[in-house]
Write a structure and sequence with these properties.
- The structure is a single chain.
- This protein is an alpha+beta fold.
- It is built from 15 helices and nine strands.
- It is globular and about 75 Å long.
């Protein structure tokens, strides 16, 4: 069950229309008065945005609102079912409903995508006027977007924009008894970026070398890296592990918690628990780790977390970044490494060992066979070996 959300708080800045949210991000609001009515729009910018970028975005938003009104688009209404209601008004109501059921991290992702990527394109359109062609045009626009450094967005990023848009428009079409405008529309694609990001994996020899290096260079983080490499768990699941989830007698770990938005939650990313086996190496390493932890702090320290921070709090999902950078400096693994690379590697090695996909999905926590295939990588040396076996 989703956890309760912390209410978003806005703090005024000295710049009218610019607010600071309690998560560090900015929210800007632009309004345009026409007669007795006011049309407004808002947008969320990341904490990394500079003040110049925020003020520029605000100026652009003001111009967009003015253009929306002067072109004759109807102002938003908050009356559900009203044929004059705009997509922007519907989106506000839709997000409020979703806020009660989604995990906080998922809701924040949905909100950012809708406010920043969707409403600026179709927010002014009346709900009854939404058509399939608008979705096609949006997909084409999304595929052309680039980051501030000029590089294209990954396919994963584009899908995080598309997913809430598709869900919202499907609900909208049901509420207004319209045809689904997303039907038979292919989500935005960026294969040239996805190929590099999704298929980067290590060989079994590289994994063994990584573990040997970690034991020498980062002994305090060694147990965490062994757990990642031999179970394929997500970083958020690793740092949410408690000792009550580890059964040494059965050689099993119950994955039932995760770190989301910096908080420990009693659920996983897919909201489903799963059990993964412990390799003998991992069981030995965790026993040693447990004895050392009890010797230093005693039982029950840090809420019984397996890998707490030095303050006794849950670690952030990025807390191993510096460790993996140090390992990469010590040894060239052919690519950067990290928790997600080890997860993809574990997935790929299981496929290479001809483990059936139902078993792999149960261990990885994938919701579909397509996800298992998506995160699988085939290394060039494996392709070369296959060709040599046939024609060598």
């Amino acid at each position: 069950m989703a956890t309760a959300l912390t209410k978003t708080k806005l703090t005024k800045t000295k710049h009218p229309g610019v607010y600071r949210r309690n998560d560090g991000s900015y929210q800007i609001r632009a309004a345009f008065r026409h007669g007795k009515k006011v049309t407004s729009r808002k947008k969320v910018l990341p904490p990394s945005a500079s003040l110049a970028e925020v003020l520029t975005a605000l100026a652009d938003l003001k111009e967009a609102v003015k253009l929306q009104v002067t072109r004759g688009h109807l102002p938003q209404t908050t009356n559900p079912g009203d044929r004059a209601e705009t997509v922007e008004s519907y989106a506000e109501r839709w997000l409020e409903v979703k806020k009660k059921r989604l995990k906080e991290s998922t809701y924040v992702s949905y909100e950012a995508a809708i406010l920043n990527r969707i409403l600026p394109r179709i927010g002014f359109v009346r709900c009854v006027d939404v058509r399939r062609g608008m979705c096609e045009a949006w997909v084409a626009w999304a595929e052309e977007q680039v980051k501030t450094d000029g590089s294209p967005y990954s396919e994963g990023a584009l899908r995080t924009w598309w997913r809430p848009m598709a869900q919202m428009l499907r609900d909208l079409s049901a509420d207004y008894d319209l045809s689904d405008p997303t039907r038979r529309i292919r989500p935005p694609e960026a294969p040239e970026v996805a190929l590099v990001r999704e298929q980067g994996t290590l060989s079994i020899k590289q994994v063994q070398t990584l573990l040997t290096d970690a034991q020498k260079i980062a002994p305090k983080r060694y147990a965490e890296i062994v757990t990642l490499a031999t179970t394929g768990v997500r970083a958020g699941e690793l740092f949410a592990l408690k000792w009550d989830a580890i059964n040494f007698e059965r050689g099993e770990i119950l994955i039932r918690r995760s770190i989301s938005m910096g908080k420990l939650t009693e659920t996983t990313k897919t909201k489903a628990w799963r059990t993964v086996p412990m390799a003998p190496l991992l069981a030995d390493v965790l026993r040693v780790h447990r004895r050392a932890q009890v010797a230093r702090h005693g039982l029950g320290w840090a809420a019984d977390l397996v890998f707490p921070s030095y303050r006794g709090t849950p670690r952030s999902t990025g807390s191993l970044k510096k460790t993996f950078v140090a390992l990469g400096v010590h040894h060239d693994y052919g690519q950067s490494t990290g928790p997600q690379v080890l997860r993809r590697t574990f997935n790929t090695l299981l496929l290479a060992a001809q483990v059936d996909q139902i078993t792999i999905r149960a261990m990885m926590g994938h919701t579909s066979a397509a996800m298992t295939q998506r995160y699988a990588g085939v290394r060039m040396d494996e392709k070369r070996a296959a060709v040599l076996n046939l024609f060598g």
